[in-house]
Design brief:
This protein has a 3-stranded antiparallel sheet, with helices on one face. The chain has a two-stranded antiparallel sheet with strand order 3-4. The protein is 50% helix and 21% strand. By secondary structure, it is an alpha+beta fold.
Length: 109
């Protein structure tokens, strides 16, 4: 009995989850490039804002470039000088990654 009820509830939840996703997508299409959806009185109904982006460093690439640099010079004193002279940045490949957009429903059921 409990297993049958649980299976039934899981099917219902799957259907509701699909409907929720469809409605969320419909609202996102309506909001488009805006960040906030307001009602006729100016109250927030939903937001779809972009989170702050981040900068990613290719640490593996930096390690490989740095070991190659040290191997060609063979002297760690050169490495210390390079670090002190802020030449260390030549080893880093960075990429700016935009933040994702988060959808938040502001109305209460």
């Amino acid at each position: 009995m409990a297993c049958e009820r649980l299976a039934s509830l899981k099917r219902e939840l799957a259907g509701l989850e699909g409907e929720k996703d469809e409605l969320e997508e419909l609202i996102k299409v309506f909001i488009a490039e805006c960040a906030i959806l307001l009602d006729e009185k100016g109250a927030q109904l939903a937001t779809w804002k972009q989170a702050k982006g981040s900068t990613k460093v290719d640490w593996r690439g930096a390690f490989l470039a740095m070991t190659q640099w040290v191997a060609t010079r063979g002297d760690f004193d050169d490495l210390a000088v390079a670090v002190e002279a802020a030449a260390f940045s030549q080893f880093f490949n960075t990429a700016n990654v935009p933040g994702s957009r988060r959808f938040l429903l502001k109305t209460r059921a």
